[in-house]
Write a structure and sequence with these properties.
single chain, about 500 residues, alpha/beta, seven-stranded mixed β-sheet, six-stranded mixed β-sheet, 21 strands, binds NADPH dihydro-nicotinamide-adenine-dinucleotide phosphate
């Protein structure tokens, strides 16, 4: 094991502002997907542990909700400062568990998580109701926007720290307390977030972290009668199950689910930019990105040129040791995920798509769940690789003839998370952006994010929004207060 991996400390549960062991001392192994080595262990929360965390969050709620907004703002801002003060440690934990390049975890994910806390710090002092003119009589009517109570946040493994921050920061700004369940593969960076939050002055119990299996800890959190809301990021399949469970007790939910996003290149685009954007749209984050531009729709007149350039780019995007600062394509998160991706590559070939680049597992020193940057041409939108979320570095390139065709193919998907389009025609840029059924549309760009703007899905990609002012709506409820102003009757 490398020195860096050997320095990783075991993960435990974080409840009431301190590390504790799981009931019965249960643990699971934490694996480095680039080396296949067990780097440490982590406590596995049982339903009883989940209950302990919920009770800690419940106990902390009244004081946190009543704390002055300015004080909440100060603490949230400081969490961002603490994350950046410990960026090396956090990024290392992220890369060693997820397999993503250290370049991404250190220079993009952790800074973005810090910015997320600092953005919502500003909102803590700006959560306002309205005074409403009524026609019913002499009343003063106003609304208050109140927190929900204990929020259960459940997130996926692809951006462990960032996805957690997208939920924890607005939930805390709104005055809720949180029980967070990270994905089983990637618990470590989120535990460091909890440590940073304590260092920043967050009162004990306001944020609790319960690593463990989705089917045990996640399920117990969703079923817990004292959890007011579930904020979920993960697959559409698991999301549907959570919705069913939450329905039984009318728990509030927001759902950030899967995607099969279309990235459209019109013939009038700057082709160099479009090809760079298309490659970045699918190979960044190893393609384990919900908004990955996994379907590239290319106008027929430039189709073969674009495919040739993508082949060249894919072949110049080698996999590498995720801890090396120059690596841009890391290891997939787990063997199972790698096999799933390789299985889809097999289906692509089997259904008649043309493999133009990649397509193979490529271990480093005989180890690691690395898959080459892969490009398929001659893909039809009814092929499995165009319909199902692969969640890997696999691009399906589909030709189209007209703008209407492009929009039709793009929208012919169960999903609607994101889309991109490349054109020099400003009118077309706006027109097509308005017609695409997706929660985010990038024009002449792809995979851009900013905490200030909302992110979330249309159709089976979910509902509710992370980030931006809209995310706060998911963590607040509105109370209407009526004050009778009529004079006392004699
Ligand atoms: P999963 O849906 O398998 O898991 C997501 C989280 O849910 C994990 O913490 C998991 O725990 C937990 N979970 C699993 N089963 C249950 C259950 N029965 N009850 C409660 N919680 C449960 O997704 P992946 O982790 O595989 O992530 C990939 C998916 O996430 C992709 O579909 C991707 O598109 C989507 N995603 C969506 C984003 C968005 O913003 N729209 C952003 C990022 C990813 P455990 O790890 O133990 O299984």
């Amino acid at each position: 094991m490398s020195e860096v991996a050997a320095a990783v400390k075991p993960g435990r549960l974080w409840i009431g502002g301190a590390y504790v062991d799981a009931e019965g001392g249960k643990t699971f192994d934490v694996v480095n997907p680039a080396t296949e080595e067990v780097i440490t262990t982590c406590a596995a929360a049982s339903p009883a542990d989940v209950d302990r965390a919920v009770q800690a969050a419940r106990a902390a709620f009244p004081a946190w909700a009543a704390m002055s907004p300015l004080e909440r703002q100060r603490i949230l801002w400081n969490i961002g400062e603490r994350l950046m003060a410990r960026v090396d440690e956090i990024a290392t934990a992220e890369t060693l568990t997820n397999g993503k390049p250290i370049f991404e975890s250190k220079f993009i994910d952790t800074p973005d998580a810090a910015k997320c806390f600092q953005y919502y710090a500003g909102w803590a002092t700006k959560i306002m109701g309205q005074t409403i003119p009524l026609s019913t009589g002499p009343f003063l009517n106003y609304t208050r926007r109140e927190p929900l109570g204990v929020v259960g946040a459940i997130v996926a493994w692809n951006f462990p720290l960032l996805l957690a921050s997208w939920k924890v920061a607005p939930a805390l700004a709104a005055g809720n307390t949180v029980v967070l369940k990270p994905a089983e593969f990637t618990p470590l960076s989120v535990l460091l977030l909890a440590e940073c939050a304590k260092e920043a002055g967050l009162p004990d119990g306001v944020l609790n972290v319960i690593p463990g299996k989705g089917s045990i800890a996640g399920q117990a959190l969703v079923e817990h009668p004292q959890v007011a809301k579930i904020a979920f990021t993960g697959s559409t399949e698991v999301g549907k199950g959570i919705l069913r469970t939450a329905a039984d007790r009318v728990a509030k939910v927001t759902m950030e689910l899967g995607g099969k996003s279309a990235n459209i290149v019109f013939a009038d685009a700057n082709i160099d930019d479009a090809v760079r954007g298309a490659a970045n749209g699918i190979f960044y984050g190893k393609g384990e990105i919900c908004a990955a531009g996994s379907r590239l729709l290319v106008e027929r007149s430039i189709y073969s040129d674009v495919v040739a350039r993508l082949k060249e780019r894919a072949e110049k995007s080698p996999v590498g040791d995720p801890m090396h600062p120059k690596t841009r394509l890391g290891a997939l998160v787990r063997e199972g995920q790698m096999n799933r991706v390789l299985d889809y590559i097999g289906k692509g070939k089997g259904e008649g798509a043309t493999l133009v680049a990649g397509g193979e597992r490529q271990p480093i020193n005989g180890k690691g769940y690395f898959v080459q940057a892969t490009v398929f041409a001659d893909v039809r939108n009814d092929m499995t690789i165009a319909r199902e979320e692969i969640f890997g570095p696999v691009l399906a390139v589909i030709p189209f003839d007209t703008e209407a065709d492009a929009v039709g193919i793009a929208n012919d998907s169960l999903y609607g998370l994101a889309a991109g389009l490349w054109t020099r025609d400003i009118k077309r840029g706006h027109r097509v952006a308005h017609k695409l059924e997706a929660g985010t549309v990038w024009v002449n760009a792809y995979n851009r994010y900013d905490t200030a703007t909302p992110f979330g899905g249309y159709k089976e990609s979910g509902f509710g929004r992370d980030m931006g002012p809209e995310a706060l709506d998911g963590y607040l409820q509105t109370k209407s207060v009526w004050i009778d102003l009529s004079e006392d009757r004699a």
